[in-house]
Predict the structure.
Amino acid sequence: MNANQDLSAIRDEVFQKIGRNLVNFQKIELMLKHLIAYGQVSGSRNEFQKNQEKKIADTRKKTLGSLVGEFVETTFQSTDSSPKPTAESAEPSISFSFSIEADADFYESKKRELKSLVDDRNDLIHHLLPRFNPESIDSCLEIRDYLDQQRERLIPEFEYLKSVIENFKELAAYLSSDEGKRAFELGLLQQSPIVQLLLNVSVQKPRPDGWTFLSVAIRQIRQILPDEMEQLENRWGYQTLPDLMEASKYFDITKEELSNGSYRWVYRSKPALAYAASYRLIQAIIDAANKTGKTDDWTSLVSTAKHIDATCSNELSEVTEKLGYQSLYDFMVESDLFEWRTGKKDEVHDIRYRLKQS
């Protein structure tokens, strides 16, 4: 093979590798668009589909640089972060979020690696051809080696995003299955205002035996959520409130026969939920904050733990046993009611909290 043939073969190889890298960058861009378009969406039942379609359309217009920035900022979640609150709505709403738990080191590393990926892609598109001399064998060899090195840098990010997509697809397949749809509808019902109000009434107005008259709850519903009773079937597909309560899987509900031959409904939250214990525990935590909090509203977790040990030790034991929390701190973090601040006092870590500011 003569020099001209050598140059021609190497030049063809360079163009093939330019095309190879471009295709890989395009695949990465498409994966990021998919994850961003479907990773987070919310809205009422009537708005959800429209919001999803708008997000897909908006994402199609974004560049690789903006896609990387949005992916990093919206997908990675620190191990101690809480979900962002959503705006309250009078009608049931749906919120879907796909996130990856990551510590600070992983977050910074992935941010840096993906930013480098954008720089590599921009160099390939905008800067490589001006410095490439296809008539020089030395230039061809230099660019060929550069393209191979670039591929080595992008392949780990390609494989990482591919693995994320696979996990995402598994979740999407589950949500599309009959089992997933049932679980989704159940979660929506369990978080609905009417079920939450039924739970609250069960701990605020119980009989001494722990059961609550359903008639008491219905009066509360008619006062606070006046449309719910009339919209049970249209909104949830149930003809009666007991049917809805049974479907939520949150309640024990039964009929009590009366002396005149009629009956009345009574209910309670299922003991496995430990809802009453959780409610009393939250009230005790707030009470401790009001009693011992500093003027800046921050309260020591240590002083609150002592207060709980003296006043609500049974409730804390029930909650940790039935719901699997390892500590009072875990319970409080999961409740998503509090803000946290850490520092040092006398060389000891000092953890303080306060109610989230509205």
